[in-house]
Amino acid sequence: MSHEEFFKNEAKKFLKDWKTQTQTVESDGYISYHYDWKFYDVGDLFFYYELDDKDEQDIKLARAQHYIAKMVGFKKWDELIHASEARLELSELLLRRFKNAQDVQDWEETLYYTGILQYGDEAVLDYARQYFDLGDRKEIVNLPADKISILTGKLKSEELNNFSAENNPDGTLRKDSYVFCTHCNKAFNFNQSKVIKETATSKTMVVCKNYPNCRGTYLDYKVLSPTIMYGQTKIAGLERGINALKTDFTMDTKVHCIHCGKEYLYKEANVVQFPDDEEPLVYCKHYPECDGSLIDMMNANKMGGR
Question: Does residue 123 surpass a pLDDT of 90?
C-alpha cells in the first residue's frame, strides 16, 4: 500500500467515526455533539481545533482528509500527499498512533521542547521512530514502586554511557548537557538523571532527577547548555559552515585559529549547538578552552603554515 492509499484509508476511517454524530440541543439553544467513535476521537479533535457548528456539521470526505493532514502538521491535504518521503513516512507513523487530541498535543509539545525540527525531516523521523518504538518502555515511569528499582553506581553509569549512541539521533543530548525537565520545570545536569529498571522485564529508562515526585523522562528534556555535536550532525555543520562563508576550505584543509594560535584540519573543528541558535556553529578544535569560531580560522597553507 502506498502512502497516499494509506492516508485515504485513514480519512475514510475518520469520516466513518464522524458519521456516528448525534446532536443534543440544550435549553439555551446550544448544540452539543456526541460520537460513538472507533478509530479517531473526532469530537475531541474538533474541540482541539476549535471547530464551530458549521464546520462540525460539514461531514464530507474532503473535510476528513483535511483533518488527517492537519493532525500530522500540514495545512491541507495536497501538502501531505506531495510531501518528501521522510515526511510521508513520519505522517504514516504518527497516524498509526494518534487517536485523540492528547496524542497530537503530546507530539506537538515534544517537537517544540526538543527543538528537533531545526535538524530537518530525516532527524525528526529518526527521533519519532525511537520515541514511539520505545512503546511500553516509556510507561516504566508510571509503574508502582514495588515494580521498579533505581540503578546506582556502576550500573547507572553504564546506562548513561550507552545513552547517547542508542537514544539520541540528533546528538544534542549528552552526559554533560544542562537540561530542563518540562514536567517539573526544574533544571539539572543530564548526568544527575536517574535510571530506573522494571523488575519483571529488566527494561530501563532514563528519568528526571526528581523521580518519583516527577514522572518526566529524557524525552521531556530541553537542552539548555551548549552541546558539542558528533557524527553526521557534526559533518553537516562543518559543510554548512563552508557554504555559509564561501571559504576555500575543504574537510582536509589545515586551518590556523587566530584565538589560540593552534593548527589542525578543518574536519577536526568542533560543531557546537547553542540553545538560542537555530543551527549549530563551527568552533575551534580546542573549544571550550578556546572560543574561536569559523570566522577566526585562517587557511594555514596560505599563511605559510608551520
Answer: no
Statement: residue 122 has pLDDT above 60: yes
Beta-carbon contacts of 224 under 8 Å, excluding residues fewer than 6 positions away, are 177, 178, 179, 180, 187, 275
Are 175 and 192 in contact by the 8 Å Cβ rule? The answer is: no
List, in order, residues 6 or more apart from 109 with CB less than 8 Å away. 182
pTM of the model: 0.53
Q: Nearest 5°: CA angle at 68, between 65 and 72?
A: 140
**Nearest-CA neighbor of 212 among 225, 194, 224, 227?**
194
When pLDDT is cut at 50, 70 and 90, the band that residue 223 belongs to is: confident
Distance CA 65, CA 53 (A): 19
| Cell numbers standing for residue 14 | 475518520
Cα 172 from Cα 274, distance rounded (Å): 10
- Each residue of 243-272: pLDDT tens digit? 887 778 899 999 999 999 999 999 999 998
